[in-house]
């Protein structure tokens, strides 16, 4: 027996190889053919593209659900919420995260408008921008799909009305955030050619927001529907409550728009009253606060962060001294205790039960802040109303 | 399905080759030429296992027996009275060649080979069409031989390159036992955020994407390194960073008929050379007895000057808490290798067991460390004169108990612990290590006791690795060779992070417990066929090789997590309370490639050398409309001393090469993606059907000169331009999608590198060899068509390395302080400022003179005339790197040493910055012993800390010199073995002591100038981004070794 045959026999492949020997020239080619079996066109198994993500009416409904999440987190995420809270001297924190320390510095510093700014601070400014526009574009896509004849749910025609109203609401709500947070923005909707948009003033963005909110109010009043629980993780909210929310957002848009006394005076307060009167406190009140699910999909980073008075943040003394004028508006030092604020306000006393109070008192010795970062960060008062609010499962 | 198709095709192919052989070799016995002889390496030094070949004849192959003798029988069909070249080779010796006339009958040809101490005659295959002498290359190929590797066996193959290959930047980013070493060859090629600059790794022909930390160096025969596109074009779209190819030991160098068994045991001790210096003083008032002065409430009183210059009271003295975590550990390695050669078959099998306990040494806490077991077998079989068959298999399994690294880890919190508390105190529930002990010191901390964290966090990783390779070589006719190969690599990685229920927080509150699992497995095939034509026409040798290759790579990852356990002590995902939460995730990554190439090489009169290569790659990672990319290489060399005689110069070779290679995009980059979080959909990445691989072009010029028969010098200059960088580009907000991966930048780099070797003595009783490698590399981002971004350090959303057009790659950016009074006026906001009120303090910073020596003293941030404060504050690139190694042999003693020198290059010392947080533990805050007027208050340092915003104060010179390897060994002579009555039991005996990282000289104040950020996917490449951040420090080892040959 030839050594080669002997070897093949030894490893038990002699029959296979003898048969293959008749196809010598094809054998090499088969390796190359194997290449053809494994196409280079590989589909991404991890994330869908538009074709798979938006293949049905149900998908478009989920697209609007994602837009609600984008809209919510665009403002409620750590950046910008913790930063703006400390900038406003509402809460105080000396930690550097999300620019809390930098942008609550006294005196205030200018915004570092650079793409190379640390990314947690970029989140403060890019989060609201991309978050709101991400939600707005999704809402536009949903409306386009409906305008092109898509049925959201063939067994429940009201769902098409629901998606149309919810999407229109999101158009207004996102433009509202842009108008309140930025100096200028793009006004886009389902009819806009995105390649030709130009910046609009914040007043123009505000007006566009109000127009969309008015449209949403009308749509939510024109039909009856129920929104999916996945929309902001709120169980059983309906067209009525969407209408209330739209009215409140509209009132907020006008009321919060002013940045100067002149703008404040010029605000259409009557319109604010009109919207607020139909808002979430009207009729059967509705609290659209989301229910946390342990931080998996839904949480309230703002409350979670700023309610941690033990090691994270406190109520700024600017607020404390308004509650109790005997308290200084800036803490004198980090070792001397000022003492518990004295106020008859239930929010401070809890009616004698400190657990029921919104605010609690902690002596100065527990204050974790670094005095070298500024005594204006010190406070002996924490806010506890929403402690454990958002990361606890319902 | 794909697996079966590919493997099946390979088997069929090999079968066809075998079957072809069956019909072509039967008639080849009569009228043969028989060549016999002996190969020796000097008097009385037979070389068993040497190979003797006639390249022109397929049956012209033989190997020597233990006595150096060989017999080569050339089949009659090949015997035509022609002139052929008979060559004898043995590792570590210059090959011997002579021209003989091949005639029927017997003839004797003996060879006496000379030791090739300078390794001038090495044969390489990486980047070349076939086995080629390094003298015949138009580009530089670095090699590390088995002899060098075994002097001080490194922990992994990449580490083994350190100091041995010019242009190889080897960095151990951390000392965690079992962790990978990182490598960059010459300048960086990738700007992709988080990308490593790692070259393509190949083990015995298997393209591998896993860590080489699984491969034991004891198995390695040699390593070849090609350093950029000028040489690596053969590997196409995945080789812009170069290629490292590892060849494991085979039995072919075992003397025919012999069995060689090698047993090597090494055991030693690990330790750390230093501790991070920290503040040994506090800033509280003391009474006359040296105790804290307390107020009426019993509280300590801050000293009025706020200066930390007081010694801790004798009752609660200062203690360096690092000593409770960092200590000494043990490690040992057992290796057994068995090689045998019998006729046409040889094999090499090995087993290695390694255990490394690292340097974590916590009283009362056992630490399992890292354990690895490897097994390998390589078999070569010559089926016939025309057909060779090789197979190799490797299995590895390892288990490690890892120690948490980075911010928040015990390496972090141990530095914040009050230096006047006992970390070994127990909790009120009796558990060891009081969790909230940090709240009890003079200067308290909100961090948890690191001993408690270490004792109650269980991080475990289990890895397995299986590799296999098949290779069949067929020589149907004298000038044609056909080869098929198949490589397989599978790895699994199971990681578990368990925190038991009831684990206390930093404020001693019992936690709910958590379990996180991360399991991944990746398998990759690569296969190929090639045909090589080799001809000679007059004085011109030429060869052409055509090849087609396939790659198929599948990676699966699953993650699962649970928190809030129902029962104590049950680390199970289902053991949840009704408030518990679970998280799951998975991903699958598929990568495929089909490639073809043709390469032609020409050698005219052995002095004019040229090489041309064209390769076309198709990859599933490229955009759908850009599926294929083409690469090329043109290289040439001129052996000038073959034409012109230069006194004292044995060889002068000039060479030049230009080549291209690529970098494949990340898997997700080409796709349009929507997120589906919680069942809701949102647009994320805009796909790019035109996405191309990054395209690197390298020009390499250099020369090699061997002179005075004892010196060799190699110089290379490399210039790499890597265009079409694959980067995520932010999109206009109205696009809906946040970003799109595009080809959007260019990175250029240049490297001067040299290698020098000298044989200072070469006598019977002693020899002395010295090698020097050095390089200087510079890199710059020359084009960026997206917004500038930062990269590299991955710290709390903060990165210090700026990627911007015109900026040095590896430069650090942040703010600096005003150094001269004149600089104050650069800032437009200071227009009304009176410069006479300012002066320069002891740190070189301008401060308000009136505040000097007070708690209001502050350095001033520099702002230029445009209001910009973000400036370059450092450059991580060293001025140059150099390594000096020497091997001195005297009688039976061998001394080997390797000294690494990294001159310059900055490191950002984040631990120092963190330590100026509220606890003020940084060493510079200690003002004891300073003149009174120079003392700085804690507020001064806190202002510089600036909530960890990057600034120049924490940029340090990262240069160092390190005695990286040291070994002294004694080879017991055969005569001594005989006298001791051991010669029947063993063939050889070598005893030695080995040291690694024994001494480091540096001005860097951190634990180790080589230890950087813990390596994560977001941190980027530690060979460029030198950023110190509480990683597991590198440590020294000192061990004893015994090696026995049977």
Describe this structure in words.
The complex is a heterodimer of chains A (394) and B (1046). Chain A has 394 residues and is mainly α. Chain A has helices spanning 3-10, 14-21, 24-37, 50-53, 57-76, 78-87, 100-103, 119-147, 158-181, 202-222, 239-255, 261-266, 269-277, 301-306, 317-323, 346-349; strands spanning 91-92, 184-186, 199-201, 314-315, 359-361, 381-383. In chain A, 48% of the residues lie in helices and 4% in strands. With 1046 residues, chain B is mainly beta. In chain B, 7% of the residues lie in helices and 46% in strands. Chain B has nine helices and 55 strands. Chains A and B meet through helix 1, helix 2, helix 3, helix 5 and helix 8 of A and helix 1, strand 23, strand 28, strand 29 and strand 33 of B.
In short:
The complex is a heterodimer of chains A (394) and B (1046). Chain A has helices spanning 3-10, 14-21, 24-37, 50-53, 57-76, 78-87, 100-103, 119-147, 158-181, 202-222, 239-255, 261-266, 269-277, 301-306, 317-323, 346-349, and strands at residues 91-92, 184-186, 199-201, 314-315, 359-361, 381-383.
Write the layout of secondary structure elements.
The complex is a heterodimer of chains A (394) and B (1046).
Chain A: H1 3-10, H2 14-21, H3 24-37, H4 50-53, H5 57-76, H6 78-87, E1 91-92, H7 100-103, H8 119-147, H9 158-181, E2 184-186, E3 199-201, H10 202-222, H11 239-255, H12 261-266, H13 269-277, H14 301-306, E4 314-315, H15 317-323, H16 346-349, E5 359-361, E6 381-383
Antiparallel strand pairs in A: 1-4, 2-3, 5-6
Helix pairs in contact in A: 5-8, 5-9, 6-8, 8-9, 9-10, 9-11, 10-11, 11-13
Chain B: H1 2-22, E1 33-40, E2 51-54, E3 61-63, E4 69-74, E5 83-89, E6 96-101, E7 105-108, E8 111-112, E9 123-124, E10 132-133, E11 142-145, H2 146-151, E12 168-171, E13 182-185, E14 200-203, E15 206-208, E16 220-226, H3 229-232, E17 243-248, E18 259-271, E19 281-282, E20 310-311, E21 329-342, E22 345-356, E23 370-384, E24 387-402, H4 410-416, H5 450-456, E25 458-477, E26 480-499, E27 514-537, E28 540-565, E29 576-604, E30 608-619, E31 628-639, E32 649-663, E33 673-675, E34 682-686, E35 694-707, E36 711-723, E37 726-730, E38 739-743, E39 745-762, E40 766-784, E41 789-791, E42 801-803, E43 807-808, E44 811-814, H6 821-824, E45 838-840, E46 846-848, E47 871-875, E48 880-890, E49 893-903, E50 906-909, H7 910-914, H8 938-945, E51 955-957, E52 960-972, H9 974-979, E53 988-1002, E54 1027-1028, E55 1036-1045
Parallel strand pairs in B: 1-7, 1-8, 14-17, 34-38, 50-54
Antiparallel strand pairs in B: 1-4, 2-3, 2-5, 5-6, 9-10, 11-16, 12-13, 14-15, 16-17, 18-21, 18-55, 19-20, 21-22, 22-23, 23-24, 24-25, 25-26, 26-27, 27-28, 28-29, 29-30, 30-31, 31-32, 32-35, 33-34, 35-36, 36-39, 37-38, 39-40, 40-43, 40-48, 41-42, 44-47, 45-46, 48-49, 49-52, 50-51, 52-53, 53-55
